[in-house]
UniProtKB/TrEMBL annotation:
Catalytic activity: citrate = D-threo-isocitrate
Enzyme class of the recorded protein, top EC level: lyase
Organism: Microscilla marina ATCC 23134
Family classification: Belongs to the aconitase/IPM isomerase family.
Name of the protein: Aconitate hydratase A
UniProt pathway: Carbohydrate metabolism; tricarboxylic acid cycle; isocitrate from oxaloacetate: step 2/2
Required cofactor(s): [4Fe-4S] cluster
Amino acid sequence: MAFDIDMIKAVYAQITERVEAARKIVNHPLTLSEKILYAHLWDGNPSKVFTRGKDYVDFAPDRIACQDATAQMALLQFMQAGKPKVAVPTTVHCDHLIQAKIGADKDLQEALNTSNEVFNFLGSVSNKYGIGFWKPGAGIIHQVVLENYAFPGGMMIGTDSHTVNAGGLGMVAIGVGGADAVDVMAGMPWELKFPKLIGVKLTGKLSGWSSSKDVILKVADILTVKGGTGAIIEYFGEGAKSISCTGKGTICNMGAEVGATTSTFGYDDSMERYLRITGRDEVADAANQVRAHLTGDPEAYANPEKHFDQLIEINLSELKPHINGPFTPDLATPVGEMTEKAKKNDWPMEVEWGLIGSCTNSSYEDLTRAASVAQQAIDKKLKTRAEFGINPGSEMIRYTAERDGLLEVFEKLDARIFTNACGPCIGQWARAGADKQPKNTIVHSFNRNFSKRADGNPNTHAFVTSPEMVAAIAISGRLDFNPMTDKLTNESGEEVMLEEPTGMEFPPKGFDVEDSGYVAPPADGSNVEVVVAPDSKRLQLLTPFEPWDGKNITGAKLLIKAFGKCTTDHISMAGPWLRYRGHLDNISDNCLIGAVNAFGKETNKVKNQVTGKYGEVPATQRVYKAEGIPTVVVGDHNYGEGSSREHAAMEPRHLGVKVVLVKSFARIHETNLKKQGMLGITFANENDYDLIQEDDTFNFIDLENFAPDKPLTVEIVHADGSKDTIKANHTYNQAQIKWFKAGSALNLIKTQNKS
């Protein structure tokens, strides 16, 4: 069944006219990214050229996807917008609130027992406002979207940073904060700075132990975690066409780890095959009619240096399998070079867990390649020396994999089959002994490996690699195992070697499923009642943030000066805190508890300038709020990288923080701060970060004249009475300044809906 086929056909009906108009205006051949962007302008047909990396542009996305953790806050906000129904096709997917512990059935039941209030809330809101609802256990949002909703040439936004996974089917799919999604749900335009373009030309063909995962692991090595910021990464070349659709999805998925706005591939035969085997012949037929507009112009790909802001070339035939980590997804090590590097850095060589799954690598092809390695272990009388866990990507994948005997292969190696959900990838893992914080190593096929991400243990060294390498390393039990050269000793004392993995793009019998987990909304949901108990610990109706009073912010105290990497995981942790994602006040008790304080280099310990004592960050901030004292958070480079967690913006806003002043922002987090009415600014001189002292007071001299492209002047008063005056830059345009003045973008939407 093809969802939203009328919407897709409508997109294709106008794409020819809009692409041709864009080509005339820009006066050069177009990349795929440019075609999709210009074809989705809010104002319709293109009429002007936009400057990459500078112009803010209003877009009209085709659809929205939300996962259960972020959907709570997004839908709580949408309920305030005064709209009877969502303006574009929208879905909610319950995949984040299921903890991996024992196995699929028991873990799913436990999630239903503990989070039923939230699931019922999401289901009722979905029914009321015309939203498609995917029940707990239906699958991981991005795999389900790829299987059911993604379509070539479309534009989608989603309340999860790995929405970009849909680039594997030729979309421009972008992770956003919930407030952005609310704008589009409410029929408003969605604003984005017109992205720069990074081209990745792929030649050759993958073989042996190398996989699509190694493409993005290599790109992460080249670009680092912030090298893609503000850009779309577009893959092209004969090598790109040789990669399966789900393999393309893997590559696009981890583009979030280099800060890219999104990543995408041009429509090709692999995408058509995927559409047809997932029951979307109508979409494939419609796409074929406008096929030339669903990939970059041949001239653009023939002379990429003229059409991309940066160009990377990778020969897939020469690409080696990689293992990236620990603690960051861009620290790359080719398999075979790990021994020396691990010893030098004192990384634990013994691997305790191998985990396969997440939205990055949980397709049928991924499972078959890993299962081919697992089957070899069985045939060669080997056992896994590390514990082994599997998260299928969707119920369709799980059902088909069970039917075809793949899960049985893993189970023969004592693998634990977890629920079709995110699980350990987002900290939803009840790992035995993690609370004791032992130094250890795990390998997984996930996308992120920040400290504490998987199990809450800061001493867990997590490494990212392909599913087949996870299987091989789990069997060997060693981080530096090289299946291409190293031998293993089996139960009979014989030395054996693993052979190259094999896989199947699709199941030979096709996909099948008994219950996909989808619940369609009623045609008219106006009579559906959404109930939130006043005493609920999990859900809380929102109170609008106060508008700006129009005055300069003065007498603001320093809450924390964050040192080094400060991701959204540090600002608003996941794991056990996920249960409070729908209750802003309760979840605010995790605000910045993972950030390292530059003074003392500890986490969750800051000086309270009211009492002079040291305390936890949220408790200290609540004192400032009670006293009516504004506060400032200071941060380092790429502040707010990681998940598109709007809670990381809403929590400090709720607790009374007025300003976030950093060296540089991650894109999504900067937007989230703006949406919530916060002042997010950057040091004009990065070295001014060093001027900030623990007892500082901040006065914003010229905020009353807040205007686009006009730096702000900040007076920093130190405890000894001395002062430093610095300049701070910002990227607010006129519309975003209106958000700030109104107190939030949502406040402005409500005002506009009433008028």
